[in-house]
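Aim 2, interim progress: modelling of the guanosine-5'-diphosphate-bound target.
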Amino acid sequence: MAVDLLLGLQWGDEGKGKIVDVLTKNYDIIARFQGGPNAGHTLEFDGIKHVLHTIPSGIFHENAVNLVGNGVVIDPVIFKKELDNLSKFEGDFTKKLLISRKAHLILPTHRLLDAASEASKGKAKIGSTLKGIGPTYMDKTGRNGIRVGDLEMKNWSEKYRALANKHEAMIDFYDVDMQYDLAELEADFFEAVEVLKSLQFIDSEEYLHQAQRSNKTILAEGAQGSLLDIDFGTYPFVTSSNTTAAGACTGLGVAPGKIKEVFGIFKAYTTRVGSGPFPTELFDSYGETMGRVGNEFGATTGRPRRCGWLDLVALKYAVQVNGVTQLMMMKGDVLSGFDKLKVCTAYKYKGEIIEHLPYNIEAENVTPIYTEMKGWKEDLTKMTDVSQLPEALNNYIGYLEKELEVPIKIVSVGPDRTQTIHR
Ligand code: GDP
Ligand code: IMO
Ligand code: MG
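Predicted structure of the complex, ligand included:
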């Protein structure tokens, strides 16, 4: 049986959590494949808003098992908080939550190192979520990391101490002004590790292999977005994992040939949180309206998200790198009332007009070239069927489909599970 994949095509926060929740009824297993609690995935139903960071977005459905894959990095402290939040709701969530033994652990000192590294960069900082993501993936590729499976070994606390001591020396090396009480952070950490240990640890690649053999349906859930990919994103202003389709193979142990549908999610405009280039960023009332109406504040850090017009050059690139087979357009409702819409179709790059994403998209090299389109006035948020969509929105969708050469199968018209139109 094939595996489907769902991922963000921009700089994150496209609405992945919402759509995974909507699609979960069709799947037996939802599996997160990369990232960590830098992610904030929002789901809304029955008037309640849930934000998940590590736990996959299928958790509220009875039918599905939710798996945290080997490519994910887990902070036990944040994970425990997520479980505590879930315990307010009906159901035994821990029963259908499985953790890969090969997932790496974020230690308190990884978080401190993230903060020290950012402080040392000054103005050039990445704008990281300060969740310890970069240092944890560095220890993974540096072959120093501690994995979930290590928690089942007797000597894991010695391994922990050796790594934490090394981290403390590294923090000193940064020579930045940082106050912290490691003993206090460790007390929280070790308490949370005990909670994590109460969950089922599995050899997840074997589990997924057997699931495929018995015809189970699997949806792989991505975090962040393609432009934050460590290889293909706007480096160095990226995260530390492969957020693109290939990340699902390494992050779950799924063979490339087993992947069937690749669902690519994008907003009808663009947002970015943190530092880094953003060619279509707006500093005028259009951008301000997107941020206000779209409630564009980071689900993990609460920081305001930068807003701008849709960038087709970047979107085409993401569709290409991921091999997207179906598109999902989110937050069209936010643009209701805009007298005009702009879509960036090319860049003026060092004096030339180009239609592909170049090596460097810093503002001094790139000026976006726009096509202007008519906006729509209608409130979309109560619409439930394609036949109700205004003509100007249909024109916008039709134009994007033609340019991207991939059908837009879902149009999302609000944050709630029910505000989802299938085409
Ligand atoms: P994710 O990280 O990709 O899961 O996205 P986030 O949850 O960080 O950010 C998406 C935000 O937009 C959340 O607050 C969602 O509730 C909200 N949202 C999702 N789809 C829609 C939509 O179609 N319209 C509106 N207005 N809000 C949406
Ligand atoms: P979801 O899954 C948006 C951004 C940070 C920063 C850069 C590096 O909710 O879409 P990191 O903490 O990973 O070292 O930060 O990446 N970033 C995100 N932006 N959505 C996310 O996740 C993000 N995860 C990281 O703001 O610019
Ligand atoms: Mg998010």
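Residues 8, 12-18, 39-42, 44, 294, 299, 330-331, 333-334, 412-415 surround guanosine-5'-diphosphate (ligand 1) (CB under 6 Å). The mean pLDDT is 97.
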